[in-house]
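Progress note, sequence design subtask.
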């Protein structure tokens, strides 16, 4: 097995889909507890080496935010790009959720889904939030074109 393929397989297995804090800005001052913020986090695709997505979203502060019981707003923005040579350890499904994070104590989640546009050899990433009872239509989409010399393997 070539070393590059072995390294790619190890990276795909070892890299969890976790957000890494990149930065934040305060949007509302709170006397008690942390301020309301807009945060930017980076998410590396766990099954596609060389692709990272950056998501910006609101984070609620105050007493509820400090205690972890606040419900963050549903809006989020995503931008994905190639940050290293793109590689695939194994075939991808046409659509797959690559990351989920809670936005409230029980009911709301932020989701990032990867879709494959095989005709254009492109990876499409969408972020949205959902709620157990009622979903939110707010979403954001970003695309990462893959060089035609590296076809996206599908299962």
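Output:
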């Amino acid at each position: 097995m070539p070393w590059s393929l072995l390294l790619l397989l190890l990276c795909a297995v070892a890299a969890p889909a976790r957000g890494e804090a990149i930065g934040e800005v305060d949007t509302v001052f709170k006397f008690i507890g942390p301020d309301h913020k807009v945060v930017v986090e980076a998410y590396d695709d766990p099954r596609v080496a060389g692709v990272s997505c950056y998501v910006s979203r609101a984070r609620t502060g105050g007493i509820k935010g400090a205690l972890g019981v606040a419900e963050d707003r549903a809006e989020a923005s995503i931008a994905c790009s190639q940050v290293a040579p793109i590689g695939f350890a194994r075939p991808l499904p046409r659509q797959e959720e690559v990351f989920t994070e809670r936005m409230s104590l029980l009911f709301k989640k932020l989701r990032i889904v990867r879709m494959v546009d095989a005709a254009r050899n492109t990876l499409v990433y969408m972020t949205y939030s959902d709620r157990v009872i009622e979903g939110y239509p707010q979403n954001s989409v970003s695309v990462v074109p893959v060089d035609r010399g590296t076809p996206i393997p599908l299962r």
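DSSP finds two helices and eight strands in the chain. Work on this subtask will continue into the next period as scheduled.
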